[in-house]
Automatic annotation (TrEMBL):
Family annotation (InterPro entries): AceGlu_kinase-like_sf, ACT-like_dom_sf, ACT_Aspartokinase, ACT_dom, AK-HD, AK-HSDH_N, Asp/Glu/Uridylate_kinase, Asp/hSer_DH_NAD-bd
Gene3D superfamilies: Acetylglutamate kinase-like, Dihydrodipicolinate Reductase, domain 2, NAD(P)-binding Rossmann-like Domain, VC0802-like
Function: Bifunctional aspartate kinase and homoserine dehydrogenase that catalyzes the first and the third steps toward the synthesis of lysine, methionine and threonine from aspartate.
NCBIfam families in the record: asp_kinases, PRK09436.1, PRK09466.1
Keyword NAD set for record: yes
Catalysed reaction equations from the record: L-aspartate + ATP = 4-phospho-L-aspartate + ADP; L-homoserine + NADP(+) = L-aspartate 4-semialdehyde + NADPH + H(+)
Protein name: Bifunctional aspartokinase/homoserine dehydrogenase 1
Essential cofactor(s): a metal cation
All copies of domain ACT, residue ranges: 320-394, 401-479
PANTHER family: HOMOSERINE DEHYDROGENASE (PTHR43070:SF5), PTHR43070
Organism the protein comes from: Neolewinella maritima
UniProt keyword terms in alphabetical order: Amino-acid biosynthesis, ATP-binding, Kinase, Lysine biosynthesis, Metal-binding, Methionine biosynthesis, Multifunctional enzyme, NAD, NADP, Nucleotide-binding, Oxidoreductase, Sodium, Threonine biosynthesis, Transferase
Subunit organization: Homotetramer.
Length: 818
């Protein structure tokens, strides 16, 4: 024998009931014995409460609600039974029953009173109507059924609203009834009766309770709870989009999950069945073929350590502290005694072993009462200053990981706190029961969704991670990056288990957000049509408010302003990847501060493309230093555009034309004067110096400019090109001089000790920089270990594809680390 229960919205509408009839027909066809429990049609219990309240207040609008109630059931009968004899019988029977309810409501209206006893009777009409109608529909579908009013078999005391079951008597009646009634019994959930035939109800989760009592009384082989979701999920799917069904879990785990508000089952009411170890299946009426969740006592120590993640979304944390608490027995008893006396339920308790403070979480609504109760209990100590007044912190929530197997696996808490820490979520209080069934952490309420997602990703989807990108600047590099992401997303998803979503995008005019990810196929149109003007402060505010896990800010501009927001962004625990050199090459103190904040917040501040574009220059330098090498000299051709210009300028075209070409090819900075003046190279050698630990500032880099003075002083880019054109002969002369000596021109940067210099040099065949071509960069590291033959990094050091790819790779690295 199996006990099935259908409830909530799965009995909300005749169409859905038809689905249930189909499921039950299937059961009947297999020849298995079963009985089925129904709760009232979705929303009906609340409507009955509302009618009674109106009637009690003398408000005759209760009549309209009653009419709607009656109509709803008649419509269900018509829809389910059509024009048949059974329809007429059912409809009439229902009218007779509802007439009683109508009179009852009128009685309440007259005496202006709805006692708990009366209310239980009123509420019984919900289950009695639904179970009766469905039993008739099943009969019509060929399943021989009988409607069973559970008041006949479940006996309770007279605690109306939440009656206590007389198990012995109920089990006996259940057994007897089922022996005498071989047809499929269609049972009303939630209701029972007390001595004298008085109607009672079973309290929260009442219909589950009915099913559980039947299962225990009948020694059933299984209970199936049919609802409107795919079993118990790893997390609340409204908050965690990637939550999935937990295929098996233990009773204890199911109880923990439900305590935290996974509303699928209400285990306290399932106790009778659980005590007899009857397995429980949670299934979806809308997807009957789906396996759902099996809850049983089988635990599998080999299985996943964490089964589910849950939260309580609003708590207040009260802390009692003071010097008078250390080593004094009875303090905890007094605190919790006072709270018990005030009728306050405690959600979580923590005390550090210094015994200096005890914290407990309660519902915010009772926090003030809790404070008063404890302060009254400790009035004497508070007056003497040995116990402090109670500190109440609000706007908090509790997130918890749940699983029986946690106790077998070390490292679970480490993972928990790493996931929270990397997302900038501060743990206010921590509690873990010694059963290790759950680890609970109190955090800020605003971080709840982010925390749930971060934890879910960390424990269930370690091979499935979503990165949330906020990209500012969609020029050459930014635009190419978006193209690369769009092209590579499928590979990353399938091969690396990584989803890269661009959730914020801005150019110099507009900004655009979509937490689900902006469609990269037409980001240009979307940005053009966006109605929000770019405002960086607002952009940063939105990043914070969206509060998404694994958020990364990508600055693809050359703008100074944006760099001023970096500190704030890192402080919000958002990582940064940028090709923009402004932040790293401005004041040394700011550079240091950014690194410190990133470290403090456990996020990444990365800028590999600042030097050598996509070439691994900064990472190589870091590897050398981290592994204990000492840098003695760095020499390099660090400008892609100058490299290209000198490799291309052969006298056949004017110098200005070659510079223009370098700009068109995307090698120069948005303002090419920055490259030609040596400023860009100066920034790069400065960054390398800083990475080696030399605290240089820009003024300390000596630049030996090769530009004629008028070019250096040109007011804007167009004036600059005019000067380059006018001074064509000057550049030709530079070239000829080099050519006469069979040399080539190179802009070379050098760092030796604390001295950084930059200058143009004519180099011959014996010089390693001689052979460079295209936009090549070449960085030569001389170190203690690489002293005779230095370590060399060489390759294209500018250009859209290689630079964007460098940024993209860095984004993936950040994602892998987080
Ligand atoms: N082009 C290259 O080969 C390399 C470039 N970089 C760096 O990459 C960055 C971007 O360079 P490109 O893409 O070549 O320049 P770009 O001029 O093509 O793109 C920059 C974009 O940023 C936008 N922008 C400027 N200020 C903005 C603001 N406040 N808000 C929103 N958008 C803003 C501009 O409108 C422009 O579309 C620069 O910092 C550059 O130094 C780094 C390595 C190599
Ligand atoms: N404009 C730069 C691009 C890379 O940072 C260069 O020419 O090297
Ligand atoms: Na690089």
């Amino acid at each position: 024998m199996k006990v099935l229960k259908f409830g909530g919205s799965s009995v909300g509408h005749p169409d859905r009931i038809r689905g249930i009839v189909e499921i039950l027909k299937g059961y009947y066809a297999t020849g298995d014995h079963f009985t089925v429990v129904f709760s009232a049609f979705g929303g009906v219990t609340d409507q009955l409460i509302e009618m009674s309240e109106l009637a009690e207040q003398g408000d005759d609008r209760y009549g309209q609600l009653f009419d709607a109630f009656s109509e709803r059931h008649q419509t269900a009968i018509t829809t389910l039974l059509g024009e048949t004899a059974l329809y007429r019988e059912t409809s009439q029977q229902m009218r007779r029953s509802h007439e009683v309810l109508k009179n009852l409501l009128y009685g309440i209206f007259l005496v202006r009173e709805a006692s708990p006893r009366t209310m239980d009777y009123v509420l019984s009409f919900g289950e009695r109507s639904s179970a009766y109608i469905i039993s008739q529909a099943l009969q019509q579908a060929g399943v021989p059924t009988e409607f069973l009013d559970a008041r006949r078999i479940i006996k309770t005391d007279k605690t109306f609203g939440n009656a206590k079951v007389n198990f012995e008597k109920s089990y006996q009646k259940i057994k007897q009834h089922y022996v005498e009634h071989p047809k499929v019994q269609v049972v009303t959930g939630f209701i029972a009766s007390a001595k004298g035939g008085l109607t009672t109800t079973l309290g929260r989760g009442g219909s589950d309770y009915t099913a559980s009592l039947l299962a225990a009384g009948l020694k059933a082989s299984a209970i199936e709870i049919w609802t409107d979701v795919n079993g118990v999920l790893t997390a609340d799917p409204r908050r965690v989009k990637k939550a999935f069904t937990i295929p098996t879990m233990t009773y204890a785990e199911a109880m923990e999950m439900s305590h935290f508000g996974a509303k699928v089952i209400y285990p306290p009411t399932l106790m009778p069945a659980l005590q007899q170890r009857i397995p429980l299946y949670i299934k979806n009426t809308f997807a009957p073929e789906f396996e759902g969740t099996k809850v049983s006592e089988d635990s599998n120590p080999e299985g996943a350590a964490v089964r589910g993640i849950s939260s309580i979304n609003n708590v207040a944390l009260c802390t009692v502290s003071g010097t008078g608490m250390f080593g004094v027995p009875g303090i905890a008893a007094r605190i919790f005694g006072a709270l018990a006396q005030a009728g306050i339920n405690i959600i979580l308790i923590t005390q550090g072993s210094s015994e200096h403070a005890i914290s407990f979480a309660v519902q915010p609504a009772v926090a003030e009462d809790a404070r008063l109760a404890v302060e009254a209990a400790f009035a004497f100590e508070i007056e003497r200053g040995v116990v402090n007044t109670v500190k109440v912190e609000r706007e908090l929530c509790v997130v918890a990981i749940i699983g029986e197997n946690m106790r077998y696996q070390p490292g679970i808490s480490g993972r928990l706190f790493r996931a929270l820490g990397q997302n900038g979520i501060n743990a206010v209080a921590i509690a873990q029961g010694s059963s290790e069934l759950n680890v609970s952490v109190v955090i800020a309420k605003e971080d709840e969704t982010k925390a749930l997602n971060a934890l879910h990703e960390s424990f269930f989807l370690s091979d499935h991670k979503t990165l949330h990108l906020f990209i500012v600047g969609v020029g050459l590099i930014g635009g190419t990056l978006l193209q690369q992401i769009q092209k590579q997303n499928e590979y990353l998803r399938e091969r690396r288990g990584m989803e890269v979503k661009v959730v914020g995008l801005a150019n110099s005019k507009k900004m655009l957000f979509d937490a689900e990810g902006i469609d990269l196929a037409d980001w240009k149109d979307q940005l053009r049509q966006a109605d929000t003007a770019i405002d960086l402060a607002v952009f940063v505010g939105r990043m914070r408010d969206l509060n998404l896990s694994n958020s990364i800010f990508v600055d693809n501009t050359a703008d100074k302003k944006i760099a001023t927001f970096y500190e704030h962004i890192l402080d919000e625990s958002i990582s940064i990847s940028t090709p923009n050199k402004i932040a790293t090459s401005s004041g040394y103190l700011q550079y240091q501060r950014l690194k410190r904040i990133a470290e403090k917040r456990g996020v990444q501040f990365r800028y590999e493309t600042n030097v050598g574009a996509g070439l691994p220059v900064i990472s190589t330098l870091r590897d050398l230093i981290d592994s204990g090498d000492r840098i003695t000299k760095i020499e390099g051709v660090l400008s892609g555009s100058l490299s290209y210009i000198f490799n291309t300028f052969d006298g056949s075209r004017p110098f200005a034309a070659v510079v223009r070409e370098a700009k068109e090819k995307g090698f120069t900075e948005p303002d090419p004067r920055i490259d030609l003046s040596g400023k860009d190279v100066a920034r790069k050698i400065l960054i390398l110096a800083r990475e080696t630990g030399v605290a240089l500032d820009a003024e300390q880099v000596t630049i030996d400019s090769f530009l004629p003075q008028e070019a250096s002083e040109a007011a804007d880019v167009s004036a600059f090109f005019t000067v380059l054109e006018e001074r064509a002969a000057y550049f030709e002369q530079l070239l000829q001089q080099a050519q006469q000596e069979e040399k080539v021109l190179r802009m070379i940067a050098t760092l030796e000790g604390e001295i950084a210099t930059i200058g143009i040099q004519a180099v011959g065949r014996d010089n390693p920089f001689f052979t460079l071509s295209g936009s090549d960069n070449m960085i030569v590291f001389t170190t203690d270990r690489y002293s005779v033959r230095p370590l060399v990094v060489r390759g294209p050091g500018a250009g859209a594809e290689v630079t964007a790819a460098g940024v993209f790779a860095e984004i993936i690295q950040i994602g892998t680390l987080s």
